[in-house]
Structures are given as structure tokens and as C-alpha cells.
Amino acid sequence: MTARAEADGAGGRLASGPVTGPRPAADGPRNEAGGPRNEAGGPQNEAGGSPNAGDAAGHGAAHVVIDSVGKTFRRSGRRTVALSGVNLEISAGELVCLLGPSGCGKSTLLRIAAGALEPDEGTVTVGGRPVHGPSPDRSMLFQTPLLFPWLTTRKNILFGPKAQRSAGLNERDDPELDAEADAILHIVGLAKFGDAFPHELSGGMQHRAAFARAIITRPSLLLMDEPFGALDAITRLRMHDFLLSMWDQYRTTILFVTHDIEEAVLLGDRVAVMGGRPPGIREVIDVPLPRPRDALDADTEVFLTTKRRIRAALTV
């Protein structure tokens, strides 16, 4: 069995107005059948390494406030309003989806939250600190995993924390980082592929490696820009299960961009529906599905009702 086939076989459930207020984040994964569920590839602290990955769950997750944000692009005498009067508040540890058609400002808002783009109006604060430029407290994942092709999976994962250490942003020594990399490789189902190069990994494996590289830096906010948009339908379902498992474990605050209604309902605590002219947030909709969730929830009446409500908001 090839490396890709072996990992893919295990790649499913792994062994505009006042600021819109947040919904309180859950204390942990809820299991209506009784008790917490861990499906991220094994118990948190039985990965054969440091317990740091498990201990980091929920630590340092950021409260995010987007207040009256606007952005206009000007080029060759043309003026394009990308965002106007956007307000959104996200609780620490909450997973919120930005949903809307192409051109509604989703990625622009994500770049502003990342500090890669300055707003013309309004402010963004993450963890109580205004956003002015990139920060190691915020990580971003894209539709393409963007792994360094000349580095192995392990070295890709360790690149961020070692760069942070060189900049004086952390004091973790090599044995601690190596142990944490072992634990995270196990959690994301890539324990056997630490020495593999990106071209030797399947698409789903590359996305899991990119997620591991982001989470090992211990960001307070994870920004995801349609990360599964280029994947086939089966791999995409597996990645949904993977992300839900990882979020249940780490409880990092996540802002997730998508144009897929079902994806937004399955993943999000709330869905911010974007659109209009000028573009902004039309409505923020709670997703009342209990956690933990999986693909089977798409057949429930709660899921279908929420999906219909979001579709109606998009067509207003």
C-alpha cells in the first residue's frame, strides 16, 4: 500500500449596525449520548511524546471584534467598495464562517483580520490588541497548503516555532519542539510520514500537514480562506471531520471563509452571511446543531432548516 493510500484510508474521522455579539463558546465538546468524544487519532496525551499539544487546548484563544470596517480599492481612476460598515464579534474559541458569493468581500475581510491589509475605516482587535500588520498570534490557511517543497513534513511543521524562537518569541528548545511535533503528527494522522516530502503526500495529507504547521505555533486566531475548495468531494468530507476533531481538541478561535452553505452549517457555531452593495454582513445566523458533529448531521431537520434560512438570507 502506498503512503498516500494508507493515509487516505485513515483520513476521515481520525484514530451592517451595532456590533454583532458572540455566542458564548462551549466549555468543551458535547456528546448528547453522554460524555466527551475524542476522534482525533487517539487520546490527547497518549501520542508517545510531550503532552503540550493536548495541554494547549483552548489556551490563548482570542476574542475578536470587527468594528465598522470598510475597505475601498482605487486603481486607474476606478473606485471599488469591497467592504462597508462590517461589524462582527467572535467569542474566544468560537468557530464562525463567513459565507457569500464571489466578490462579496469575504477574503478581503479575512486579510484585514490577518493584518495583511489595512482597512480604510473601522478597527479590528484580536485578544484586545488592535490589528496593525501580521502577528505570530494569527495564522492563515489557504486553498493551497503552501508547504515548502524542499522540506520534509516534520521540518515544515517545525519551521514556524523555530522561526519564532529565532525572533525571541518563544523559548522552546529542540527536544521540546521535537516532542510536540511527534504529538501533533500523531494527532493529524501523519506519524508515519514525518520524513515524507510534500510531493509524496496526497492532497488531504498536505492540508493536514499545513494545519499541523499552523497549530504548533499556538495561534490565538486561525484564519481559513476556503481551505478545502480545491479538494474532491470525498476528501473534502474527510477534511471536515478532521477540522472538527482538531477544533474540539484545541479550541482555537477560527474564522472560516466559504461559499458552500452545507460546509458553513456543518462547521460553524454561527454563519455570517455576506453580500449586498456595498458589500457587508447581511445577517449572522446561529447554527443550533449540537457538538460534536459529523457528515450524518446533514440529514437532520435542524441542519436542513438552518440551510434553508441561510439560503433565504443570501437571496434577499
What does this structure look like?
Helix content is 32%, strand content 21%. The protein is an alpha/beta fold and 316 residues long. It has two domains: 61-137 and 220-316, P-loop containing nucleotide triphosphate hydrolases (Rossmann fold, 3-Layer(aba) Sandwich), CATH 3.40.50.300; 146-218, no CATH class. It has a six-stranded mixed β-sheet with strand order 6-7-8-3-9-10, sandwiched between helices. The protein has a four-stranded antiparallel β-sheet with strand order 2-1-4-5, covered by helices on one side. Strand 9 and strand 10 form a beta hairpin. Helix 4 runs parallel beside helix 6 (203-215) and helix 8 crosses helix 9 (301-314).
Gist of the model:
It is built from 9 helices and 10 strands.
Oligomer: single chain
- The level-1 CATH class of the largest domain: Alpha Beta
Structural class: alpha/beta
Helical proportion, percent range: 25-40%
Architecture (CATH level 2) name of the largest domain = 3-Layer(aba) Sandwich
Q: Note poorly predicted spans.
A: 1-19, 24-58
Q: How many runs of DSSP E, i.e. beta strands?
A: 10
Strand content: 15-25%
Sheet bearing the most strands, described?
6 strands, mixed
H-E string? HHEEEHEEEHHHEHEHEEH
CATH topology of the largest domain: Rossmann fold
CATH homologous superfamily classification of the largest domain: P-loop containing nucleotide triphosphate hydrolases
Strand order of the largest sheet: 6-7-8-3-9-10
Distance between the termini: 51 Å
Return Rg in Å: 19 Å
Shape: globular
Give the mean pLDDT.
82
